[in-house]
Fold each of these.
Amino acid sequence: MNKIKTIIRKEWAEVFKNRMVIFTVAFLPLLMTALPLGIIFATRDASTGTGEAIDSQLPSEMTQSMCPQGLNGAECFQVFMISEFMMLFMIVPVAIPVTIAAYSIVGEKTTRSLEPLLATPITTIELLIGKCLAAVIPAVLATYAAFGIFALGSWLIVANKMLLTALLDARWLIAIFIVGPLLAVMAVAFSLMISSRVSDPRVAEQVSMVIIVPVLAGFFGQMAGLFVLNKQVISVVAVVMLALDALLVYLATRVFQRESILTRWK
Amino acid sequence: MIHTENLTKKFGTIMAVECLSLDVREGEVFGCLGPNGAGKTTTVRMLTSLIGPTDGSATVNGFVLGKQDTDIRRTVGVLTETPGMYDNLSAEYNMQIFAELYEVQDVKGQVEKYLRMLGLWERRFDSAGTFSKGMKQKLAIARALLHEPRILFLDEPTAGLDPEASHLVREFIAELKKEGRTIFICTHNLDEADRLCDRVGVFKTRMLVVDTPANLRASVFGRKVVFHLRAADEGLAGAVRKLLFVREVKVVENKLLVNLDDPEVHNPDIIRTLIGAGADLQFVGELRHSLEEVYLQLVKAA
């Protein structure tokens, strides 16, 4: 356990000296928070007058599954618009760990510091857990912090507290508190696998970023009306993510072999 | 302290180390000499349980390779081919990380001890990235010693260092030798090996020969004694050739080069013969071949 803590402290001390990492960790959550808050702010007065017209334009699945009774059409539209951004919000727990992992794992090889590290009595599992947590913890904390700011901002902007309940319903809570950390773990496990397999650190970083594609696909799919992220869908996503994480972590530990890393990484 | 038996490592179809059988004794400084790609680094990586052997067995500090790898890593110190420092972190923090990973009890004390010993204490707060190559190498040596290992593996400890830094590192290794640590050095620097090592092994995928530098010289070139005379000629050479124990005599300018098995025993007889033949003997010395000559001869023959 002490060795894991040492690795985490070391990783943070190193990666947070990198401006790109700091930029990603600080800027991305702020951007993803500002966008939905801006939407809520811009449409805060839309609940009067035009409700019926907007209601008729909303997808029927959306009005059934997302819009609680008591909200008018315009307020439902606000809920719909914000829920569109939920997927975009999920980029935070994916992009941050990929950036950190790219610097912490691939960076080890570029500075050739991995060999002395592997020569210590640390076990592969301890090293992997340390590196995973060093990337996952900031991502999860940044996601939670961004969500906290979003919730606070919503509370300040939205006058109708029923609308606030709809904006911050179970879908958001499952997405932020369950799917978010699972996505972060998936991103790190994927980065680990890529880092262990490719010989060029730059390739590792670029290929690892591919993990964002499914999240973006989800965002655009939802925008295009291909599916609606209701409570059931997000719960299924969480279960699938859990299984996927278990598989990726297993594969990452299989792939992250001392020998292959020392002899393949040139 | 280190025992290997037919230790073999293959990377696919490429044979990196072939049937290495070796014993390195406690307190011994063993030099592993060989050309680039000979398998020296692979051998160090195997013996420090960084990579596993394809075949064969080994024990390091009494621990069995492949079964007690964590124990091996806990009890040996390694200076890897490149220092591999965390350049953004201070020298002190670099050391602290490794002290913690090696489960050192008094982290601060040990870090201070070795930073002071290697003359880096005043620069402890500076980023390792700002250090010169020599300073980084010293820092890496300090890092390898934090947990007071009884066995130390040094892979090219003076590679790329200027003469002053190399000298400092060699002096430090000599100090470690005095402390009775077992040291396994891989080096291209044959002069360094000659000065530091009790025994050397010439390695080219497989171990060609293992012996003390002096014995290697004798086995490859024999022992030659130089007799400096006021004037040397074939007449004097002929008188020496008549002695039964003499293998070969050559006249080179005003010197006689005499090839012998045991100069300590036979030199007085030669001196008597030369004086009896009217030679004016100025002085006598042994012709010392460099380890480099020995090494080149062995590698060429392989």
Note: Residues 2-264 of chain A form one domain.
Amino acid sequence: MQIQSMHFKARAGQRLADVRLQNNLKKLSTKFVTGRASAITELDDFEGTRDAAIDMRMRAIENLDVWLDTFEKQATLRGATVLYAESAEDASRLVVEIARKHQVKKAIKSKSMVSEEMALNQALEAAGVQPIETDLGEYILQINGNEAPSHIIAPVVHKDKEEISDLFARVHKRPRLTDIPAMTREAREILRPQFLSADMGITGGNFIIAETGSVAIVTNEGNEGMCTILPPKVHVVVTGIEKVLPTLEDLATVMRLLPRSATGQSISNYFSLLTGPRAQGEQDGPEHMYFVLVDGGRTGLIGGEFQDMLRCIRCGACMNHCPVYQKIGGHSYGWVYPGPMGSVLTPAYVGIENALDLPQASTLCGECHVVCPVKIPLPDLMRKLREQQFAQELRPPLERLGLRAWAYFAQRPALYRLATKVGVRVMRIMGGRKKSISTLPFVSGWSDYRDMPAPSGKTFRELYKERK
Amino acid sequence: MRIGLFVTCLVDMMRPEIGFSALKLLESNGCEVVVPDLQTCCGQPGYNSGDRQSARALAEKFLHEFEDFEYVVIPSGSCGGMVKTHYSDLFADDPDLRMRMSKLEPRVFELTDFLATVLKISTLPPSSFKGHVTYHDSCCGLRELGVQAQPRALLGQLPDVQLTEMKDSTACCGFGGTFAIKYGNISSAIVDEKCTNIHDSGADAVVLGDLGCMLNIEGRLRRTGDDKTRVLHVAQVLAGDC
């Protein structure tokens, strides 16, 4: 996907002014935040499960080459083909080659954020293959001019029912429906023939299991089953190399956390564990099964300051609970992954200089760290990115100057005392009779929206000395 | 009990009266309080803006000035969080500083935590403050230091204070240090929700324990025409200085 993160401020500004979007984003807190809060109470030992999941994820990541090797052996043994792609573009190329090899005209897709990294639909279309999104949310986005998802698990969270009713009526050329089950039925009717006539199914993979060479796929609509079992002769799994789990036991542990953290469900409506293509004597499954495992910047994180990010299980809890995401929505972030996890992943995958606002646009309130099922220290990672920006002189000169000046004074108590003495007097005068400052030079970001209650005119230290 | 009071830069400049309320609360409970004269800033602005070098210099300065006290008390969750949870990271490459910090860290307390946990105050002298309040949890105090029950327990000891919880009291107010300046529009959208929740609680005053949230919430309330809802530091309410 083309990166737009440098336009963060403008995009966020538009979203703040969009009354309809502001209303739609309220679903996050009413649905996901409350849902998660009650779902996690079902586990006897939520904290213990989290710690166990961290151990498992880190065990896999610290020996990623070994586990990928095991996975490849097991998957191959069961008849699948495992391919590696260094970049997202390479991955798209591989999928296109597979489509060509099997003379694919139409590919049905279930939801995959990695395929967004790859801009896979564009690549397929360019190669004459028609990609059809079958996750309801992704389908809505596709028929709306290939709009980008705004959330990693709820891609159309930014839309309301009315918007989708209008879209369906326009694109499907049928009478406008407003009842959700009826709208869903209409989408099913449209998609059914597509499922039946497709040559290839493309899915993501929530996890891949080294022990068995399987892929685990979590969905709520069952469309994934239609993409992999029903008609297509080829199934291609595209996922990141970091999604490997050593054993099925590990998968069971992580699955206790994923749906609960994501949607507040104890378990998703559908959960598939797929191992190899259709074997002799089996009734269903594809004739050919491929894994395209994407690096796309992931190995660059191993062993470094951002390694913890690789254990992310893509539940979306960090964005659901983020006060900034809740106000500006996912499109403001300008690439595939929004919210706190995206603010760390985007600079890591596409270059720190291409996403300067992302790690800065956080209050560092810490809620993302609190709710992350695998306790990724997201605020610390964003702070580390800020350190890199500062060290590489990527921050505006005025900000640098301000910080350095503050630090210079704060390290020299006598000078600091004098400066603060003058400062509070100036602010008192600026406050006037209202005792409130409404315009502040250099920090209009504050005073455009807030008053600054004026100080009384003497510092604590002055008053303390006087009192003594 | 000899206590070093770190008043914090924002109290020093913007709200000196909060420093005196903290002083009064500690002294009236039998503490000998020293306010080291050379103290300035804990280094948080630099640390959160990526200027690690400056933050570390200020962390070392703090350590030097406060390590000899029996306890260090700070009337701010975020400065307390900075010292208690982030200084060790800044000293990561220096075993000597890290060791000194590990000795100091358990003796550093946010004000209400100190009053409730260390002094175990169970009866506060009647405060002259009377009224209906709601409590805003500051992010760092809550999530880095676990300050949540302490201020409420202390407020509960004041017979003339009625506490009503607002919706989402633990949600961020949108301050975030320099975030409030760099992304003023996003920050004000977040604080607007906080202001709505404060209003909906029906309280006459919002009480909190961090100057950043205080200036942000008060500044937004006043800008949007609310001149009535008071924004008070928990120390002021407990000491009856408001």
Note: Strands of chain B lie at 2-5, 32-34, 71-74, 108-110, 131-135, 161-163, 205-208, 230-233.
